[in-house]
Amino acid sequence: MVTVILLVSLLRPSKSKAPPTLKERIPFVSNTIQYLTDCGTFLDRVSETFKTTNTNIVKFYLAGTPAYIVAGTANVQRMLRTVDSLDGNFLNLLLMDKFWGMSHSEIDKFAQDHSGRGKTALPGTEGTPPEQRIWHSHDQLYVEFLSKHKYIDALADSFYRLFNERLDRQSKDEWQTVEVFRFLQTAMTESAIISLFGSQIVDLNPDIIEAYYAFDRIANKLAWGFPKFVQPKNVAARERLHDMSKRHIDSAWKNFDWDGPDADSVWEPHFGSRLSRETAKWFRERGFSSYAAAGHTLSTLFGLNGNTVPITTWALITITRDPVLLQAVREEAESTYVVDPATGVRRIDPQKLVSLPLLQSIYIEMMRMHVSFNITRRATQQVVIDGYVIPKGAIVQTCAQIAHFEEDVWGVEGHPASEFWAYRHVKVADVVDEKTGEVVGQKKQFAMKGRPSSFFPFGGGHVMCPGRHFAKQEIMLAIAIIVTKFDIEFVEWTELDGTRRERQAEDDRRYAGFVAISPDGDMRIRWKRRW
Hints:
It is built from 22 helices and 20 strands. The chain is α+β, with helices and mostly antiparallel strands. Helix 5 crosses helix 15 and helix 14 packs antiparallel against helix 15 (about 290-305). The radius of gyration is 24 Å and the shape is globular. It starts with a helix and ends with a strand. The model is unreliable at about 1-15 (pLDDT under 50). Keywords: Heme, Iron, Metal-binding, Monooxygenase, Oxidoreductase, Signal.
């Protein structure tokens, strides 16, 4: 009898009570409103609740649905690995409605596929016909055309060329004044869009960059579904960008020769990259409308620029304000220049660049400190996390804004997790002579300070941003090109409209919980080309 009681006590959840609940003035209402309108402050309250209750799970209600935010390495791992009962497709389906503008019948093609994203269908769905494995075949587009070096390198080469051309328009003979964020929003965004979607999307829509940033500012408000009549301007911003995307899709289908010499090319002007072309083909072959395909383009535009431009801006703001760090980054980046044997032109080797220890460390620090992304799952059956029972239908989240600042994970003596430190992820290793075994010098190496389960700027588990590899190359290329090509001097801080301000730029909390956080101001610099 004692043995039975002992076994029952070991197998049942360790905590019989419900987890701490986030307080709110108006039950079932206040937290929802704050989550949707001021997620930064909402997450600050969650962090404070974790501290005061000494727990790693907090409950609240989101639009009447029970929701749980979890923290701590073990809980995050549990959440990301529980594929059978925590659905990672939930948010994708929501975005198909709110971002892509897909019809309910088109969304159902995804929603009714329960076979998973992996090569092998999930248990119980082994008999699913290949043409009905929508999630898997869609993900395979990214595996094939956004993970293989052939296609990533083509994207990086295109971005490098286009971005370099924009910078070469700057004067070599005199100092010029620019606002960093504003410049990158134009030069970097256009270079990335053309690299992925071709030059025709810009030729057909000359104001697409302005339309994109009008959408970027309100995207998080659309995602969770305020009714259209509550936010007509936000819906109009989405529809404007959606119409541009559809104009591009329709034109590409009309003008691209599928039997011509560009059928297997890595890039051409109509669809752009092979990924863009094959994705458009995939949508059409599976019976999706051009409107749905255009919505996918819109969502990809957001994924393409939502992290890269703000993170590059923060990196340049940080680097150029520290002359010693600027020189160290410049020297490291200059070591990656090679002479192209075909053209004789001196250029950066992207593969060497992404392996640089200091620049990688700065990249990780920028992502750690300025990405506020909530990984979201929905419980398809009851699940236990941290000893608490999460009911079927509940929303479960873990938040980068919280995990990325955990002191016991990221803190170093003299360099707390709350502060930027360029060398947090750099270690110095001995160089040993292979013949004598003697230490003949030292070299810097990149070494990630935190654990993977404490760092998830691109999502986690089986649902991660497929463009993360290109994003890293794009960010590091933009930084390296600018610091090696220009002498740079800080001038002043400005508002986003260009007017002078006294305080330095800070995180724009309107982006919290959804994407990389843009600066709430800009940095005006003077620069002059060095070559």
